[in-house]
Design goal:
7 domains, 5-stranded parallel sheet, 917 residues
Length: 917
């Protein structure tokens, strides 16, 4: 079952579209026609033969202009284009992906199985899943699309380089990606060059030649320049386009012609600074002040200028700047938002910071307040940091941190802000520090969370000169409550059961009166989860209902969904599988509508639905839900999520006769259990592996796994020790049955049955009765075996359980057959359904093969066929599916055998014929 996890920080949040800066999706507008440069234009045309175009050069070499030329050429050729102007705030992986997805889906409405609106939280795996569906749809439609990413040099997050490399590896040939950056290709993307899908255009191609310099200066309508003057300017600027444009502007403003060129050629200084000074020296003082103020910001509007910066003639000043072609770039069609060329803005910022630092501070302070009033949170905080007033920045962060984390899940953003604040500023801001703890904790960085919590305790103890928890009269009750709750949640995420119990027992009574209602709800739901683990279902339900009430007070849908999910998971363990399946199916569809099919909330509900559906024998439904839910629910949350995810997925794979893939799934889960120190996950999956090995006759392998779990059938544990974990008990019972160590086994099972019935654990009771029937059969007591199994069948039929009996293997099937022979026909309904389930996999495979001449193709194999259809090679298929390249090859061999073909092309053709694709 699932309890609060990173996804539970998302409530009924605004859809992502409301959070985008619209100007980031529009290519910058360029005054006049783009200058035709034959050599560069040929290089750009040749670059379009490749899927990836990388433009790299320092500022002012025409990278953006070249992107605009490429966009025009592609659009003229019928290719759809989309654009993202990147900025430093895009260094967070989820935000970067959100902008890329939104750009693509704006360009091609309806592309992909799901829209970005299907995901309300900043979850990278969910966003990658949407991108994957977009790529599949692009491939199926063969729709040409070009994605432009400008100013990529502002991205220095290695995780984003990796995710971009992933996108390029899984995308179809009809998707082009064109990128402009001041830096060369990151080493993480060197494979693109080796695969010959990359066109790398650098300074050499973007620099103007001597002849192109002459053409450029002629197009600027300057007074006639002789060949020596042109050569002088070319050599001094080294073919730098922005430098030549500054030369043209300076010549027009200076009016001295040859004298200016002579001075420029002899000047021993930075070319850009010299030229900018020459140009700006001719600008009127009022315009210069306007330029100095507005260049401080990555973008500015007329409203910002007039309302915050005191520039009441902003409209007239902007018109002057535009008329004099002073590097002004419009960011939207309505002419509301603007920026300057980076060359100009960088120069002006440096000059203003050096000459008028107070002006920088005052302008940023006023702009920060304006951005905050307009709801532009990121820019408000960015300006606050620029003032140097870290307390102002901290105040703004504190105001929005709940929305950023608990409503939107942007924990990385909070962590970055926090790390920019000096230690002395944070010392007194305990609430902000606890917000940071939540963010690192829900990002899976538990060691950092623990260190931060210990530091907070130490600082509080020093401040009040008392031990933190002994000084509860001196320390603010709300802060103390929040600290305790953070520790509690840390123990929950760390799976420290005893510490969870101790914290709840010591501090639980105080939380409801002092804590944040949302945190109280999380604590109650976590406590309900541990009551569930201890099989106190009555307590778990009561705590879940109380948690739901707190969540409803906060209008927090995700938490309400988690509480409702718990009720159905408890129903399943109580043997009410029909009720659980119906309730979880309805809740899953509701989660998908409210938060998105790829949200973690929907994924966690989906995993529990898959478990219930599999238990009921509805394997098709389980398989379908697992396709979208497994990836996230097997990575995020608590141990109960992981157990359901890996067990159900491996069982469905084995049902589909994908034994190797099922084993790989269990191995992946065991590795996760070891990595995160989750013994319950490890034992549950070891128990599954023992069951499978025994059914395959691999007794030695099963014994080896059992010993790894601390079980030796020659030295059985105490009969009634269900507290050891039911998974350990089942491992021991199965191994003793398999090795013939039967003495006292019947009494041990009976003692366990007394406990499970008392705890209302009907699902486990049915499994134990099935094992007891096998024991009785092996000892020659078939009458008793049939009677015991008849009891199990009655319990199973009443609630709709199926696989708990069927999955115990062929020995149980033999007793079922005998029980059916002895049961009157009119009373065989429950038996028939169970026997049908026993025979289903074999019978359905034979029927399908007879009808189509091929064995059953699993859902996972269909996914691989879709990737092959997109043109992906084995390595890229492996990356997409999260498997090794060897496993990908194994899947393809199986597919060829089942479809009776010998090649990829034939497999795709056959799959289409069978309507699998």
């Amino acid at each position: 079952m699932a309890i609060p996890d990173p996804a539970l920080t998302m409530a009924r949040a605004p859809r992502p579209e409301g959070r985008f800066i619209e100007t980031k999706f529009r290519p910058p507008s360029v005054a006049g026609e783009l200058v035709a440069l034959a050599r560069l234009d040929r290089a750009l045309a040749a670059a379009l033969e490749r899927r990836v175009v990388w433009l790299s050069a320092p500022a002012g070499f025409g990278k953006t202009t070249s992107l605009l030329k490429l966009a025009r050429a592609l659009a003229a050729d019928g290719c759809t284009t989309c654009w993202v102007n990147l900025d430093p705030e895009d260094n967070e992986t989820a935000r970067f992906l959100q902008y890329v997805i939104e750009a693509v889906q704006r360009a091609l409405p309806g592309i992909g199985e799901y829209r970005l609106a299907d995901v309300c939280e900043a979850n990278v795996d969910a966003l990658k899943a949407i991108l994957r569906s977009v790529c599949e749809d692009l491939a199926a439609r063969a729709t040409p699309l070009a994605l432009f990413l400008d100013d990529y040099h502002l991205i220095d997050n290695p995780a984003i380089h990796a995710v971009l490399a992933w996108l390029l590896s899984v995308s179809p040939d009809c998707l082009r990606v064109l990128i402009a950056s001041r830096y060369r290709l990151p080493s993480t993307m060197d494979d693109l060059r080796r695969q010959q899908v990359l066109a790398d255009i650098g300074t050499a191609e973007l620099s103007l030649t001597l002849d192109e310099t002459a053409c450029f200066l002629h197009a600027a309508q300057l007074p006639a320049l002789n060949a020596d003057q042109v050569r002088t300017l070319f050599e001094r600027t080294e073919g730098w386009a922005a430098g030549l444009q500054l030369v043209a502007m300076a010549l027009q403003a200076d009016g001295r012609g040859a004298a200016f060129i002579d001075e420029f050629s002899g000047a021993d200084c930075d070319v850009s600074a010299y030229l900018l000074e020459a140009v700006l020296s001719q600008v009127p003082p009022t315009v210069m002040r306007f330029l100095s103020l507005t260049a401080l910001f990555d973008r500015f509007s007329l409203a910002l200028c007039s309302e915050a910066l005191g520039q009441h003639d902003a409209g007239a000043t902007m018109a002057w700047i535009r008329a004099h072609n002073l590097f002004l770039i419009a960011l939207d069609d309505g002419g509301q938002w603007f920026r300057y060329h980076h060359l100009l803005s960088d120069y002006l910022r440096g000059a203003t910071a050096a000459g008028a630092p107070d002006q920088v501070c005052l302008a940023n302070r006023a702009a920060s307040a304006w951005f905050a009033r307009e709801g532009l949170r990121d820019e408000a905080i960015r300006c606050a940091f620029q003032t140097g007033d870290v307390n102002l920045a901290a105040d703004l962060i504190e105001r929005c941190v709940e929305d950023v984390t608990q409503r939107r899940g942007e924990h990385d953003q909070v962590i970055r802000w926090y790390q920019r604040l000096p230690e002395e500023t944070l010392l007194e801001r305990i609430t902000l520090r606890l917000s940071y703890v939540r963010s690192v904790m829900w990002s899976g960085r538990l060691r950092e969370a623990q260190s931060a919590l210990l530091a907070i305790e130490s600082d509080l103890a020093l401040r009040y000169a008392v031990s933190v928890y002994d000084g509860k009269d001196a320390i603010d009750a709300a802060i103390l409550g929040d600290l305790q709750i953070c520790w509690y949640m840390f123990h929950v995420f760390s799976n420290r059961v005893e510490r969870v119990r101790e914290s709840k027992r010591t501090w639980g009574a105080q939380w409801e009166s002092t804590g944040n209602p949302l945190d109280i709800a999380r604590v109650k739901l976590a406590a309900a989860c541990f009551a569930f683990i201890e099989h106190d279902y009555r307590e778990a339900l009561a705590l879940g209902e109380s948690a739901q009430a707190f969540y409803e007070r906060c209008d927090y849908y995700a938490g309400v969904a988690g509480c409702r999910r718990m009720r159905y998971v408890i129903a399943l363990e109580r043997g009410q599988a029909r009720e659980a399946e119906r309730g979880l199916a309805a809740l899953y569809e509701e989660n998908c509508r409210e938060l998105g099919r790829y949200s973690i909330i929907a994924a966690n509900t989906g995993i529990q639905l898959a478990d219930a559906a599999y238990e009921r024998g509805q394997v098709d439904l389980a398989r379908k839900v697992l396709a979208s839910a497994f990836g996230m629910s097997s990575k995020y949350g608590l141990v109960t999520n992981f157990i359901a995810a890996f067990l159900t997925s491996s069982r469905v794979l084995r049902f589909d006769q994908q034994g190797e893939a099922a084993d790989a799934c269990l191995s992946e889960g065991l590795a996760l259990g070891r990595e995160r120190s989750l013994p319950r996950l490890t034992v549950a999956l070891q128990g599954e592996r023992v069951r499978v090995y025994l059914q395959q006759g691999r007794i030695d392998d099963a014994l080896k796994v059992g010993r790894g779990a601390g079980i030796d059938p020659a030295q059985p544990g105490e009969a009634g020790a269900l507290a050891r974990s039911s998974d350990l008990v089942l491992i021991e019972l199965r191994l003793r049955l398999a090795t013939g160590r039967l003495q006292g086994l019947g009494l041990a099972i009976d003692d366990l049955l007394v406990q499970t019935r008392k705890q209302q654990r009907v699902r486990l009771t049915v499994r134990l009765l099935a094992l007891k029937s096998v024991l009785l059969q092996q000892t020659g007591r078939m009458d008793d075996a049939c009677a015991v199994l008849d009891t199990a069948v009655g319990l199973a039929s009443a609630g709709g359980l199926c696989r708990s009996i069927v999955d115990e293997g062929p020995e149980v099937r033999a007793v079922l057959e005998e029980l059916r022979r002895r049961t009157p026909l009119a009373a065989q309904d429950g038996l028939s359904s169970l026997l049908s389930a026993c025979n289903f996999a074999v019978a359905s495979t034979r029927a399908f093969g007879a009808a189509l001449g091929a064995a059953v193709i699993s859902a996972r194999e269909v996914d691989i066929l879709k990737l092959v259809q997109c043109g992906l090679d084995n390595r890229r298929v492996a990356v997409q599916m999260g498997i090794s390249e060897g496993t990908a090859k194994w899947y393809l061999r199986n597919i060829y055998q089942k479809l009776q073909v010998g090649s990829r092309t034939a497999a795709i053709a056959r799959a289409r014929e069978l309507r699998l694709l």
